[in-house]
Amino acid sequence: MLNPLARYPEVQAASGRQMLPITLISGFLGAGKTTLLNSLLTQGDGRRLAVLVNDFGELNIDAKLIVKVEGQQMELANGCICCSIRDDLVAGVENLLATEPPPEQLLIETSGVSDPINIVCTFNTAKVRRKIFLENVVTVVDAVHALDARDTEYAQLFERQIRGAYMIVLNRTQAAGPEQTQKVRKMITDLLPTASIFETDNGSVPLQVLLGDSRLGQSTFRPEAVMDPASHPFESMVYRSDKPLRRMEFIRTMKSLTDTVYRAKGFLNFKNYPLTTLYQKVGSFESYVDGSAWGVSTPRTELVLIGVSSRFDREALTAALDACVG
Ligand SMILES: [Zn+2]
């Protein structure tokens, strides 16, 4: 079995105790972080993993989408672990460290608007820092959408997600095609010349690549992380309805909101339809996937919407979705 600590004998010796290796999974909204996390969890290798999932929105949808974890799983919602709920992140890690037996590895899925450099800063200064070490910061980049981020309000956040990475997982390369993939690779290496880039088409990466790569030793030479409290101009809201939505109306409404809502995800209750529907939207890409039958649970719609602050009008969004009820 891999022992990540074997690569850090000096760290281990200095601490005199086992330190919990942490891998951050970062990446922009919809880049494929949950898919990557699921691929790691399904592979497993006997290591006692703990998983901490952060959703920026009030609902932790991602936590519902990850496969069953053998070890501990913790969810942090209603805030971002890089800024508004930094204390919750540290408390969560402390709780995990106190469990018996403690996990051998912690995977943290950050929210899509999290700045990984801010999270590194949090761990550098937190009082748990002697009990943990950051083994890897992986940023998932969607090869299809990456170039669109350059001239947006969130370009700075997107860049920090890349510059903060120890390793880049370049996802959906087949959908992007070789020419665009090459352009994205150039964009990444312009921002992070030493980037180690792993290409994949379906978000899956061998466990050993992310949780045991000797090249990660270079992390010690990285420039000091500096907090940027204003790095993400995003807001979120949750739309809920106990009444069913008309499918065609909903489809039409979400199409009309493409400029306002960058990311949406949640479970929908459609009129005259017996199954839950998992809805996901990233930019102009949307997917509707059948889930289980409602069974004994009360059918209801719960949808997280995320958009750029300057164009995000909660009342207008609620009204637009309310108009789909009936
Ligand atoms: Zn944040």
Automatic annotation (TrEMBL):
The keyword Signal does not apply. It catalyses: GTP + H2O = GDP + phosphate + H(+). SMART domains: CobW_C. It comes from the Bacteria. GO terms for molecular function: hydrolase activity; nucleotide binding. Keywords: Chaperone, Hydrolase, Nucleotide-binding. Residues 234-325 form the CobW C-terminal domain. One of its GO terms (cellular component) is cytoplasm. Gene3D superfamilies: CobW-like, C-terminal domain, P-loop containing nucleotide triphosphate hydrolases. PANTHER family: COBW DOMAIN-CONTAINING PROTEIN, COBW-RELATED. Zinc chaperone that directly transfers zinc cofactor to target proteins, thereby activating them. Zinc is transferred from the CXCC motif in the GTPase domain to the zinc binding site in target proteins in a process requiring GTP hydrolysis. Belongs to the SIMIBI class G3E GTPase family. ZNG1 subfamily. This is G3E family GTPase. The lineage of its organism: Bacteria, Pseudomonadati, Pseudomonadota, Gammaproteobacteria, Nevskiales.
